What we know:
Layout: E1 8-13, H1 24-32, E2 35-38, H2 44-48, E3 55-58, E4 61-62, E5 65-66, H3 70-82, E6 86-91, H4 101-110, E7 115-118, H5 123-130, E8 144-148, H6 161-167, E9 170-174, H7 180-189, E10 197-202, E11 210-215, H8 219-226, E12 232-236, H9 243-246, E13 250-253, H10 260-269, E14 273-276, E15 280-284, H11 291-297, E16 300-303, H12 306-312, H13 316-323, E17 327-329, H14 332-339, H15 354-361, E18 367-373, H16 379-386, E19 390-401, H17 405-412, E20 418-421, H18 424-436, H19 440-449, E21 451-454, H20 457-465, H21 479-489
Parallel strand pairs: 1-6, 1-7, 2-3, 2-6, 8-9, 13-14, 13-20, 16-17, 16-18, 18-19, 20-21
Antiparallel strand pairs: 4-5, 9-12, 10-11, 10-12, 15-19
Amino acid sequence: MGRSDRGKVYLVGAGPGDPDLVTLRAKKLIEEAEVILFDRLLSPEILSWASEDAEKIDVGKLPGRHKLSQEEINALLVEKGKDGKKVVRLKGGDPFVFGRGGEEGLALAGARIPFEVVPGVTSAISVPAGAGIPVTHRGVSTAFTVVTGHEEPGKDENLDWGALAKVGGTLVVLMGVARLPENTSALLRSGRSPKTPAALIERGWSPEERLVVATLGDIVERAKEADVQSPAILVVGDVVSLAEKLRPPKIAILRPDNRGEESERIARDLGFRPILAPSIAFRELALPEDLPKMIERADCVVFTSATGAEIALRDGEVAELLKRSVLATIGPRTREALVERGLSVTVVPDSFSSKGLALSLAPKFKRVLLLRSAKGSPELIEILEEAGVEVDEVHLYDIAPSADPRLDWLILRGRPDVFAFTSGSTARNLIERAKELGAESDLRERLARAKVAAIGPPTEAELMRLGVRVDYVPKMYTFESMLKEIRRKG
């Protein structure tokens, strides 16, 4: 990457945190930058757009723990600009909305270094919007005010909270956690009704987003109960009441991480805000040496999951033999995994269950090879053997607890509207991990308040055994059908 004759600094807004909400101009500059100064609110994916050769400097500040002072950041921007480099100062939200972009611009102007401001999607509007709260709404609020929730010590002019209380409309308080009791008390003393709807939105537009809705009179108590932490935005006004209808439902997806991208896409397409929190992980097992012989002598080879198909087909010899074999699957997603790799599937039962598959196989085949998980249900083998079918079974993978930090966050802090379970093991491991964290009682309370979906009868039965009520079971036992059933019933 060549050096410019003169350096230029770009004060770039990165939006509220979701990479999809970064402007095209900002993304282009990040990719071209030689130096990037960033702060703590940024998604790792946004930083991943930068060149490997780019110098990346974390100047982020935590409340009470400053990595670099603002004066030091200003001086560093001037220094890098004087080096003749293309410098991006990457800031959460918009650089000129409580982002101190103006101070940085003045420092650069004073040093006669060219700079450019690239606006970002401000969190003051986008974070409430993402939580289903429009800052203005016809007949409810025709104006909104944006303020910072904590004042810099020693400022000559402090916010007049009494005046803010009388303005009316919607009040958006950025960085609103540290002084929440003082600020809400000031609004109440100045005449704002304690019954005014209020909401705190923690880590807006991130996978860890949480919404706490209350009134101005009890928002402090509710925030303590929910252990709301910075960064969070306070919204005060009647528009908060619209969140119940406008907020997209949040769905906790417990299935393994190798299905995460697919699950997230399906959930978003159907209007959900997904929370990926895998409770199980796959541990691949070695293929037995005699697997080719087992395939050759089987009348039909059966796969019960896309994961099993992907594992088996990595072996070239096995893949070639399977191309000449009669194949059966338990559902359409497994069939797709085989077809995508050039294989054809003869048997897909109308009922996507072990019993449905067994009934499809029993009248047609004398010897069946079952390739599946070590935790597979015994029902399939039992039905086949009762029908006189000889069954060989090979375990391609085992299922283990995920040890995923996203699961721990869900258990300790998550507040989804829906829990989606794709197997009995996802349910068991969620409850077991909650026990280990000492949070089983709290988790069960949230399961009772939320809606619970099971992908099929075996998963439903396991949830009921665990004492968890089930609200949705689709007629077709696929992840997409399960989410469509939730949307249909509401």
